[in-house]
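Example complex used in Figure S2.
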Amino acid sequence: MTRNNPPRSSGRQGRPGRTSGAKPGQVAHPRWSSRPARPEATDREGNTARSLPPVPGEQRPEKPVKAAPAKNAPAKAARAKNATKAAPKDKAPEQAGPKQAAPRGEGAKKPARQGRKPGAVRPTKALRPAQPVMRQPSGDPLVGERYEVEVGPVAHGGHCVARHEGRVLFVRHALPGERVVALVTEGTTTSRFLRADAVEVLDPSKDRIEAPCPFSGPGKCGGCDWQHVTPGGQRKLKAAVLTEQLAKLAGLTPEEARWDGSVEPVGGKLPAGEVPAWRTRVQYAVDEEGGVGLRKHRSHDVQPIDRCLIAAPGVTELGIESRDWTGVASVEAIASSGSSDRQVILRPRTGEQLPLVELDRETSIARIDDQDLFHRVHGRTFVRERAAGRTWRVSEGGFWQIHPEAPETLVDAVLTGLDPQWGESALDLYCGVGLFAGALAERVGEEGAVLGIESGKQAVADARHNLAALEHVRIECDKVETLLPRTGITSTDLIVLDPPRAGAGRDTVAHLSSLEARRIAYVACDPAALARDLAFFREGGYRPVSLRAFDLFPMTQHFECVAILEPVR
Ligand SMILES: C[S@@+](CC[C@H](N)C(=O)[O-])C[C@H]1O[C@@H](n2cnc3c(N)ncnc32)[C@H](O)[C@@H]1O
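Predicted assembly (569 residues):
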């Protein structure tokens, strides 16, 4: 059992965090050394590696420690300014109030709302969450209309396409070839398309099954898209989406993309009706009564649940669903698959104090404030994961693949595709806590060089910690599109890029295409962004020589791809 005992002191204390992961010039591989990397790259706020915030879990000095001697006074002054700016982030967590997240049904009384503390600083306007601008849709509303339709092909986004009297409908909970009654959930007479749910299936597909999850279905939880589909049927849908996106956005057939047309199952094939419990990170929403659930599709409404079937056993055993979370807006549960580490990250409702949390297992607890800053409440500020022969520290807010087998699967696909050689130089872009950088570094050896770029400061601190023993790895903190042109690197042997859902974009792809890499591995979680960027790579003289797709998000529309590109000769 874990209780988030209020922190005793007002801040983390001790020695300073690690400074730069590599000495200037240390990774200057011959092919990069024509214009060496800047000795002190800065992140987008002007911090250098030396002025980055200390690493949680390591100790920090009570007083600011003097930065290492600066080469020039202005840089030193800028660092000092940044250190001052960063100070509020390291503020001590407030004392937790006397409230308790008791098991639901124990009748915990709601304490009175707490007002703003005297002297507390109100966030500036820019820091307050933006209010969505609600546009009044034109035309007459069609929500609630029911149309009998023939369901057409699956589309990117977890729905199928149907038509009714010339109007396009995106229908969820349907399957291609089915005849269904579609209930319109969004749209008007002037909308380009309508959104709808299949509420009655008149002619079912052979891939349809009874959804194993009682919270899945029209108007219910938005977490899974394909609960009503056999595992094989889900992978066929994903393959159809990838085929369509490649054709539409890259002008490529599966053959031209060097893809065998399959989405590979991960973690063994399951019989229809069995749900893989793969989700090692679950973001729960909390309703007005303090009950947890998951968000409904395209809605802030909460679908109360008593269990999420795709949650990993390590998440389920925390017993999150059986507690009263009054005063809390959201609960994120993380169960490491590489260690016994468990972490729960709570976001209190505005103006509410954090309740005292009791869970069914030993768990680290953190709090996120109104400005999205993390505060340690109890235990560690990170979880430890295992992959590619290494232990990885992943701090709060840092990226780690959710499926327990994803890191190994993707590292294997990347290394197989790139076939790194001893002494080669490599870039790991959008490197997170350093997963691919670490795997590449082992292969290229100390004669080689690996540069990782990542914009998240804490992820960078984790990556530097995780790869501290590898002298030929350097991690820099900034946006790829900002830093890469400033590194002075004009060529490299290998590139891995694993961008967020939006992809890398035209300018970054153009820059990467100019680096004369022998091979590029593109790890993609969005098939549309991948296809668009493959078209940009073609403009830059690169073509896919292999493409693989992995079902790393079973029961949902999502999947992961690894494309290996080579220069067109
Ligand atoms: C899909 S994750 C990949 C992380 C890592 N490769 C892994 O597998 O664990 C994308 C990462 O890119 C970072 N990121 C997002 N936008 C970025 C940008 N413009 N420049 C650099 N990093 C960025 C995110 O913080 C995140 O860590």
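The chain has nine helices and 25 strands. Residues 281-381 form one domain.
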